[in-house]
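Question (not urgent): is this output format expected?
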Amino acid sequence: MLVRTSPFMRAAGDFMKPDRAFSDLIGRIYDCALDTSAWPVVLGEIADALGGVMADVTVVHPLEPKLTTAAVYNWPDELVERIQASSRINPTLAIGLTAPLCEPLCTTRDYPDLHKSRYWRSCLAGRGLYDYVLAPVTRTVTSFSSWGVVGSEAKGPFTDEDLELARLLSPHIKRAVEISGVIGHQRVETGTLRSALDALATPALIVERDGTILFCNRAADAELASRQVLRENGGRLMGMTPDAARLLGTLASVGGHGMQKGIDAFLTDAAGRTLHATGVALEQAGEEIGSPILLLLREPEASLTTPLSSAASLYQLTTAEIQVLGQVLQGHALADTADILGLARSTVKTHLEAIYRKTQTHRQAELVSRIMSLTSPLKR
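Got this back:
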């Protein structure tokens, strides 16, 4: 029996092994971290890898609701506008506040009734589109960002292999989105990288693989002067802790291709303070700085939960119940929720009664109050 394999993955026994094309794609994803104008082209490459026809990076505020496309590939302008204007009836948005980060979701598997929904009927029907794979990559209490690829009717559902490739790409897309966010979601032109990094409150360094320091912003100067985790010695970066020494050893030993994939490390000093170190090659940053490594030191993100994710976990809600609850939190009545989700009114009523039972509430106003009281106090 013949098994179709992606040009980005090769079958090897019971696991899939990335090949050179996959590594090249990872490198181009990291190029987007420093030049956000590259996202449309790279999204096109990601879409091709998954056999899709359109792709996007999107920021969603499900409870407002509002959707903003940060970058798109092959999305018609009028369709983007229609999607944004139809946020209130998009039944999938709430799931982004509860789904695990970087874990791909697929409409044909996770939202099997989407094609019946008012959203699909008014926005996507009749365009030759069929399936959508997406993965949340960052999240706050009330919003999340995700990347996604749209498939065609001709392709049909995304396969297990497609989802596995999406799963492998997601952490790298997440890291590239976070790095580009750190430097302000602005395109970094050649000659302006140093000034952009110097404006950060986050320590940022540009170093050669042997630790030679090419640039430190003011925050990095202060961090090195503290000599708690890293210090400068003769123009080179030196580790003050075992974690830091291992990081510098990794920088020295990883080749260009491996460095394109980026590295993450957690550095803990003697006082117990932890920094999250992210390193990525600057192969496309321009002749001004050659091809060294950008090293960012950040406080680790605190564990963050949303009202909806807290409710889903606390009350053990099903996917269908989460979708219904998401509409209730937007103020939709029972009949409107049924039309939006493409479900029978009786089905929605059954899901809502189950939510009432699990949350020990009896009315929508009481339910909304109960759920919103679960907001994490850590971040907004």
